[in-house]
Specification:
By secondary structure, the protein is an alpha/beta fold. The protein has 5 helices and 4 strands; from the N terminus they run βαβαβααβα. Its EC number is 3.1.3.48.
């Protein structure tokens, strides 16, 4: 399949005509189901990558869930444990993504295809819907594929680890980290500051099913 991913981020922040820095930070939001497992993990990893690349003054990052069951809750303890073991800092309270958030975000990163569909359906306009991207479309497995399927037709979801054990959270972190160099490079281009991209295990301190809903829908 041809790679239909745009070469620059669709919600590029406005910049002065002389090409100098954007007048406001470029804003990236990661979205999963309940904002307690996958999206806070992606937020913490990407924030660390921004610091490593010297882009943290130009880009802000947050996360949210498509549902509001966990609003106000901390991240799942297993997410906290995995991030802490890997050397990532995180302070988190779950929030719900709503349609009015699109106006304040330049890029909305879905953790699986179910979130991608729901977010695009929620978007107030085609322009806002174009801001929604699948996280693993930035990963190495997406090369030669499309926005939803990688080489050989494999789905580009980050599976929900909520109902499994600790290993699922380790696997989740691995998939998230693998997508970060591509995402960081695109965001760096969008803000006019090409990023010094590290590999999937480049952060100091780290050695590196279709549809999200389970029985009660209260997932991460």
């Amino acid at each position: 399949m041809a790679d239909d991913r745009p070469r620059t981020a669709p919600g590029t922040a406005p910049r002065p005509a002389d090409g100098t820095r954007a007048p406001r930070p470029y804003r990236v939001c990661f979205v999963c189901t309940g904002n307690i497992c996958r999206s806070p993990m992606a937020e913490a990893v990407f924030r660390a990558r921004l610091v490593d690349a010297g882009l943290d003054a130009l880009v802000t990052v947050d996360s949210a869930g498509t549902g509001g069951w966990h609003t106000g809750d901390a991240a799942d303890p297993r997410t906290v444990a995995v991030l802490t073991a890997a050397g990532y800092a995180q302070r988190h309270r779950a929030r719900q993504f709503t349609a009015d958030w699109f106006a304040d975000r330049d890029l909305v990163i879905a953790l699986d295809r179910g979130h991608q569909r729901e977010l695009r359906a929620m978007a107030p306009s085609p322009e806002e819907a174009a801001k929604v991207r699948l996280l693993r479309s930035y990963g190495p497995e997406a090369s030669g594929g499309s926005q939803a399927y990688g080489r050989g037709g494999a789905a580009l979801d980050v599976p929900d680890p909520y109902y499994g054990g600790a290993r699922g959270f380790d696997d989740c972190l691995e998939l998230i980290e693998a997508a970060m160099p591509g995402l960081l490079a695109e965001v760096g281009d969008a803000v006019g500051e090409p990023a010094g991209v590290t590999g999937t295990d480049g952060h100091d301190g780290h050695d590196g099913p279709d549809g999200p809903d389970g029985p009660d829908g209260k997932l991460g």
